[in-house]
Structures are given as structure tokens and as C-alpha cells.
From TrEMBL:
Protein's name in the database: 4-hydroxy-3-methylbut-2-en-1-yl diphosphate synthase (flavodoxin)
Matches recorded under NCBIfam families: ispG_gcpE (TIGR00612), PRK00366.1 (NF001540)
Pathway annotation from the record: Isoprenoid biosynthesis; isopentenyl diphosphate biosynthesis via DXP pathway; isopentenyl diphosphate from 1-deoxy-D-xylulose 5-phosphate: step 5/6
Record bears the keyword Methyltransferase: no
Family to which this protein belongs: Belongs to the IspG family.
GO biological process, one term: terpenoid biosynthetic process
Length: 404
């Protein structure tokens, strides 16, 4: 799946587009004015693998906090680029808080609510002026739910004059694309270089999103941000986002992605990062963390031992990755198999870099371990889980360490 050749955009230390890797990003849900809480969440998102993190900048207290957030992250060794999400009053906040304007690595502007009526164009121009002044890239992000009504009204009027008017849904899709493309060209006219512009047209329907991005991709070479907005929560949000983005990514469309999941109350925000990474990794586009291969279980695996071991190993690998990726080149490509019985266990374990075939119901209580297709040891007793984790650690060191 060859990447579509879009214009590369530098955002802090991360490059979007230009044929480079698809970038994973996320967004905080803390009150940005809560400096301590926001710093902690940004740090956790970055540690989980978010390469860009967006913050809500909705009022003066939030704008005033941004530079402090940037400074505190730096003291923790976290240099993840921060994106300011502006709606309605961004022009005022950037003017009043130059430290905020400077601390952010990118601005997000929504053409649908940058200003109404006669205020729209001058306030949009002010946002672009600040981006030019501070040499910041901009994402012009159109949302289905906050579409510029003047663009929609214009296209509806034009459609009404046709001998065969197009369906309303088609006109609305075209209005979303038109809003993004016209706003981008306006930004260029105002002096913003094309290599500082990223576009997005977010929808909440899977097929609508696919139609819009397929059309937009054929009409522009600006870098594209993908995301199904208001995807939902739990399995629905994950499935919908995966369905939409996988179709587009398989066509080489999309330079950066965000998974917009509604979190469970009190749940960890990093799930959206994990889902984004796993979409890219399972499609063979990028690798982020060793993959765990495990069976679904059946009547041969009435014990939940293999399920717990698979879960523990996967959690362990993900927890280790922030340090491993600095020390072990290529470890993210490793495959680990944790299988539950003799039917597919030995075969899958042999095909993985390292694997274990646990005993199923009624089988002899032993667990052969395979490394690079060769059985190296058979585990038994009460410490199979601990011993296998130790073997995985030794495998990583011996195969991906400096001496490997």
C-alpha cells in the first residue's frame, strides 16, 4: 500500500506527509488550565506512543497555561509536539498570549466556527497571520457537525439550479470538502506556505468519511489528517474507526490519524493511542510494539491460564517499549505466541519469534517453548508464567541488544 505523495509538514520534531510514516496523535480531555493534570496526561499519552498531542485552548486560563505545560514537560524529558485546538476565539487568545502561540507546535482551525458572517474572514486571516508570524503549521479541520453554513448554503443554491439536482447527502459531502480546500487556498493567499498546511474533513459515518477522503485525496496534495469523529465508545467506536481508516489507509490515503473514542468514566485515555497503533501495525504499515499471537479458546482450553498469560505478556511488552525502543532496534517487529492447546499451539509457536504452547484440557501438564522455530525448553510446574516472561526478556536481549 504505497503512500500517496503529499506535501510534507514539519510539526516540532515530527514530520507529517511527504511520503513518511503515518503519524499517531491523540488529544487530552483534561482542563488545560489544570497544568499538573494536563502535563501528566500528555506525558502518559506520549509514553504510550502518541507522536503529537492536541490540547483544548478555549479560554484565557487555558492559553495562559500552555507555556507552563510545555516547560514542565521539558523537565520530564518529554518533547512531544503540542497542538492548540482553537474554536470561536483563537484569534483573541493568540494575540493576548504570545507565549502560548510560541509554545504550541501547530494550530488547529475549524472554518465552521472561526467566526460568523462578516467576522469569519478577518478572524480567519488573524489566525493565519499568527501562524505566519510564529512559523507554525496549521490544520484546517472541517467537522461535519460544525460545517460552515455559508458554504453549504451556496452549494445548495447552486444545486437547486441544476436540471438534475444531486442528493442532499452528496451536496453536504461536497460542502465539507469545499470548505477545507477553499480555506487552505485562502491561507496560502494570506502567506502561509503550502508545506505548513494539513487538512481534515471529519465525519461520524464510516461510508461518508470514506467517500469524502477518497474525493479529497484525488483533488489535493495537502497532507491529510484522518479520523472518524464522534466514533463512540467501547467496541463500537473501535470497530467503526478501524473500518473507516483501514479502507483509506489501504489506498495510501492519510498521513496522520487520531482515534476519537468516548472513554469509559475514569478510563485510561491511552486506549485511543493503542487502537491507532494496532490499526497501523496489523495492516503492516508501521510497527510499534511486539505483537502477541493468541488463540480465542475453545472446549479444549477450559482453563483461563493461557488467557491470563497472554494478557500479562502483552501488558509487559507494551510497558517495556518506551525503554526498549531506545535500546533494542527492531524489537517492535517481534512476534510472541501464547497458545492454549496442542491443536495449533506448536505450529503457531514455531512460526513466531518466540512462543509457548500451554497444555489444554486433559493434555500432559507441560509447556514447550519455541525460539525461532526450534523447541528450546519445556516448562512445567507453578512458575510457567514467570519463567516464560524471563525467557522473553532474554530473547529480546540476545536478539535485539547491541551485541546482536
Amino acid at each position: 500500500m504505497k503512500r500517496k505523495n503529499t506535501i510534507g509538514v514539519q510539526v516540532g520534531n515530527i514530520r507529517i506527509g511527504g511520503g513518511g510514516p503515518v503519524v499517531v496523535q491523540s488529544m487530552t480531555n483534561t482542563d488545560t488550565a489544570d497544568i499538573k493534570g494536563t502535563v501528566q496526561q500528555v506525558y502518559e499519552l506520549a509514553r504510550a506512543g502518541s507522536e503529537l498531542v492536541r490540547l483544548t485552548v478555549d479560554r484565557e486560563e487555558s492559553a495562559e497555561a500552555v507555556a507552563h505545560i510545555r516547560d514542565q514537560l521539558a523537565t520530564r524529558g518529554c518533547d512531544v509536539p503540542l497542538i492548540g485546538d482553537f474554536h470561536f476565539n483563537g484569534h483573541k487568545l493568540l494575540e493576548k498570549y504570545p507565549d502560548c502561540a510560541q509554545a504550541l507546535s501547530k494550530y488547529r482551525i475549524n472554518p465552521g466556527n472561526v467566526g460568523k458572517g462578516s467576522k469569519r474572514d478577518p478572524q480567519f486571516a488573524q489566525m493565519i497571520e499568527f501562524a505566519c508570524r510564529y512559523e507554525k503549521p496549521v490544520r484546517i479541520g472541517v467537522n461535519w457537525g460544525s460545517l460552515d453554513q455559508s458554504v453549504l448554503a451556496r452549494l445548495l443554491d447552486e444545486n437547486a439550479t441544476l436540471s438534475e439536482p444531486r442528493p442532499l447527502q452528496e451536496v453536504m459531502r461536497e460542502a465539507v470538502i469545499t470548505s477545507a480546500l477553499e480555506s487552505a487556498e485562502k491561507a496560502v493567499e494570506l502567506g502561509l506556505p503550502r508545506n505548513r498546511i494539513v487538512l481534515s474533513c471529519k465525519m461520524s459515518g464510516v461510508q461518508e468519511l470514506i467517500h469524502v477522503y477518497e474525493s479529497m485525496s484525488s483533488r489535493t496534495d495537502f497532507a491529510l489528517h484522518l479520523g472518524l469523529t464522534e466514533a463512540g465508545m467501547g467496541s463500537k467506536g473501535i470497530v467503526a474507526s478501524t473500518a473507516a481508516l483501514s479502507v483509506l489507509l489501504s489506498q495510501g490515503i492519510g498521513d496522520t490519524i487520531r482515534i476519537s473514542l468516548t472513554p469509559e468514566p475514569g478510563a485510561d485515555r491511552i486506549l485511543e493511542v493503542i487502537v491507532a497503533q494496532e490499526i497501523l501495525q496489523t495492516m503492516g504499515i508501521r510497527a510499534f510494539t511486539p505483537m502477541v499471537i493468541s488463540c480465542p479458546g475453545c472446549g479444549r482450553t477450559t482453563s483461563d491460564y493461557f488467557q491470563k498469560l497472554a494478557q500479562n505478556i502483552q501488558s509487559h511488552l507494551r510497558h517495556q517499549m518506551p525503554s526498549w525502543k531506545q535500546r533494542y532496534k527492531g524489537v517492535e517487529d517481534m512476534h510472541v505466541a501464547v497458545m492454549g492447546c496442542v491443536v495449533n499451539g506448536p505450529g503457531e509457536s514455531k512460526n513466531a519469534n518466540i512462543g509457548i504452547s500451554l497444555p489444554g484440557t486433559g493434555e500432559q501438564p507441560v509447556a514447550p517453548v519455541f525460539e525461532d522455530g526450534v523447541k528450546t525448553v519445556t516448562l512445567k510446574g507453578d512458575r510457567i508464567a514467570e519463567e516464560f516472561q524471563e525467557i522473553v526478556e532474554r530473547y529480546v536481549e540476545s536478539h535485539y541488544g547491541a551485541q546482536a
